[in-house]
Amino acid sequence: MLIGYARTSTTDQVAGLEGQVRELKAKGCAKVYAEQISATSARRPELTACMDNLRAGDVLVVAKPDRLARSTADLLALVKDIEAKDAALLILSMGGQELDTRNPTSKLMLTMLAAVAEFERDLMKERQAEGIAKAKADGRYKGRKPTAMNQALKIQQMKAEGQKATDIAKTLNISRMSVYRALRDV
């Protein structure tokens, strides 16, 4: 059975998630697990459910390897877990080629391409850090504006009205610690 997994990092990427799901269903996936969560998140419940339901002979299908794994090591560990279940991994979009771990050449290509993708990401992060450092040196980079401190007066008002920190945090969509910090610093 073909089982699909689709993921985007943020809820803003609805079209990307829908596109992946459409592609997986077009490939013939009987079930598609989809979630909008960062790959760096400690828990990815849909991936966990997908892996738990993977049976011998099944093929896990993903649009791209970065939708499944956060690093080369992570990807290779997932492939190992998939193969331990006597299942396989099929990646649909690898430069116009499909990579299927039931094929030794595809497994080699997958390892090499995952390493290249991780290398590119590391280079991008390095360039980003250099850009931020230059912007800071030029006095143009101020960092992200603090969202809770912008609402400090509202936080104080809500607290004065007798609302609890947890309720204030939920209402303003900020953390409870941000509420305490805003009350302390103002």
Automatic annotation (TrEMBL):
The segment(s) forming the Resolvase/invertase-type recombinase catalytic domain are 1-139
Coiled coil (UniProt feature): none
MF terms from GO for this chain are: DNA binding; DNA strand exchange activity
Q: Pfam families this protein is in?
A: HTH_7, Resolvase
What PANTHER family does the entry give? DNA-INVERTASE FROM LAMBDOID PROPHAGE, RESOLVASE HOMOLOG YNEB
Family as reported in the entry's similarity comment: Belongs to the site-specific recombinase resolvase family.
What's the protein name?
Resolvase
